[in-house]
């Protein structure tokens, strides 16, 4: 065992996506970033994250650090990739295990917003600290690929939603129009949503039906990894880390 | 920054798949395992791997440790997942970044084989050290999923191959028969193989055509990660690690 080994430190970061109204009122894909308050990259924006504590699981560390920095508790959390290039941090060797997460719009509204925590348009970011632009690009690619063959669109929505709201997730994330009639037939054939019998409040004339997700179907197929219980509760609520 | 952080150590392991003839002569999906010569799990079989050195990339560490333990240099290497459950190692906290690799049959024949390095049938493993059974199960799931929508089957083959050899990869890995006529049409339509104009030597009557992979097409689509050059040359050939 080499002594060089002990010089590698381990961090966890998370790319958090949400849909929120832009200045024009149209929804857009956004993510929260944290301004760095120390070197390296002091003053630049970076993904929320922090070092891994020895007494917490990787997904727990992702949940904890994003709760601490943004107050967000995502509906969907999945490991993205471990980034470990030699030159990714100028002063020391850091391997970052990166998660990606989806939060519903109403949850996103509850996020901390301050001078040092802000939402950015996912496809129009400034130059970020470390290799975080590459990490966001890869997370965007994974999100768009996975939206097409899984049910993760529901990670952006609340408990109940209209079919128009579900369709809007696809349109905004994939940046292309989706035909309403085809979409309705496709969703109804998939069995992934259930009509609640209720209708959207506050809409005149014929208010649209509300649906909920059919929770007997997982949002994604993780194969044998589903045997690892992915904790959704941040470590901070389960005991003191000190 | 918590002091607990420094108690986490980082290792790299690799699940290496190859197709080799079984006792009956039929090819089967196999992987090499290394017998542990120290506690914990002394005497049990485990995935090849070792600690990450601070001066090597993650993929380099995967290549180096598997060259050191098995003498193998894979045709295909991809990051699988970072495993970091609290209870995965009894004595200390180890986060393992796991890669998976494919080697061609002739390369597999060159692997070290000894009392402590042996090939096992992938679907019939003994109880392995740590969480390595779960890791292999997940790698098998990823291999089978990815074989269906990418060109990674070529990772099991040499420079040139017959269509029957390519079809055999699908049949053995997916454990189901594949219709030869449909398969030929599907492969020819995909543009992923190129006829070499040569024929398999040593075959009587009409020897089958030899093909090679169309290297203008990547074996898989890694999206923005392709910007990270995945080194295929183990670190040990590029300089001394000491």
From TrEMBL, chains A, B:
Superkingdom to which the source organism belongs: Bacteria
Pfam families: NUDIX, WHD_NrtR
Domain Nudix hydrolase: 9-144
Region of interest called Disordered, as start-end residue ranges on this chain: 221-242
Coiled-coil blocks: none
PROSITE patterns: NUDIX
Family annotation (InterPro entries): NUDIX_hydrolase-like_dom_sf (IPR015797), NUDIX_hydrolase_dom (IPR000086), WH-like_DNA-bd_sf (IPR036388), WH_DNA-bd_sf (IPR036390), WHD_NrtR (IPR054105)
Protein name, entry field: NUDIX domain protein
Species of the source: Aurantimicrobium photophilum
């Amino acid at each position: 065992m080499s002594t060089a080994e002990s010089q590698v430190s381990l961090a966890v970061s998370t790319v958090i996506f949400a849909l929120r109204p832009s200045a024009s009122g149209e929804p857009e894909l956004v993510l929260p970033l944290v301004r760095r308050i120390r070197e390296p990259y002091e003053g630049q924006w970076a993904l929320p994250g922090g070092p891994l504590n020895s007494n917490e699981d990787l997904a727990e560390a992702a949940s904890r650090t994003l709760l601490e920095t943004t107050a967000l508790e995502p509906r969907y959390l999945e490991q993205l990739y471990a980034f470990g290039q030699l030159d990714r941090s100028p002063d020391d060797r850091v391997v970052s295990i990166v998660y990606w997460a989806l939060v519903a719009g109403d949850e996103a509204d509850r996020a901390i917003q301050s001078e040092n925590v802000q939402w950015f348009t996912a496809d129009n970011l400034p130059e970020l600290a470390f290799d975080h632009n590459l990490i966001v690009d890869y997370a965007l690619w994974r999100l768009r690929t996975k939206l097409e063959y899984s049910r993760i669109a529901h990670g952006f929505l609340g408990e109940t939603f209209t079919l128009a709201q579900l369709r809007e997730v696809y349109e905004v994330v994939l940046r292309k129009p989706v035909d309403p009639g085809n979409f309705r037939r496709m969703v109804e054939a998939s069995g992934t949503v259930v009509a609640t019998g209720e209708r959207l409040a506050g809409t005149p004339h014929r208010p649209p039906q509300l649906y909920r997700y059919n929770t007997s179907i997982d949002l994604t197929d993780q194969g044998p990894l589903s045997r690892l219980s992915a904790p959704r509760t941040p470590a901070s609520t389960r005991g003191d880390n000190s």
